[in-house]
Amino acid sequence: MWNGDGTVEVNGFRVFYSEVDFVRKIFERQPETATNIRPKNQLVKNAYMNNLLDLIDIICLAPQELTEEELRDAEKTLLELAEVGFELDWLKRKLEELCVKKKKMETRGARVRELDRMIVAQRQVLLALEAELKNEENEAVSHIARLCFDDVV
């Protein structure tokens, strides 16, 4: 239902027209999401729906785009929404998956840096060994070479 203020009512929430499809998808795929919501004040309900949409936007980001603080804030927002009656187990799982991906990414990043340092160190050792080998070869060649008459006399 169009409200004349740029919002549309979807499942008891007034959302901006640009968000209607997103909110409808939430209720189509997760119909239990707001069945137990306690606030009855329309403004409060709208604020919570905006928080939910913001939270979903955050969870859609790639792990490297998020800081630890943003992930903690997302967890707090999720808890606040659950406290007022939103059923968000589905979203909690997604947030947990995102946190795990972030941790794995950081762990892998540290391992990549460690391996890179090891490779650099091994290249330096290899270069030193190659230089030593070259010196040994040069000395060996000079010791096995035949002497000429002028070298002897």
UniProtKB/TrEMBL annotation:
InterPro entries: MCC. Keywords: Coiled coil. Residues 64-146 form a coiled coil. This is MATH domain-containing protein.
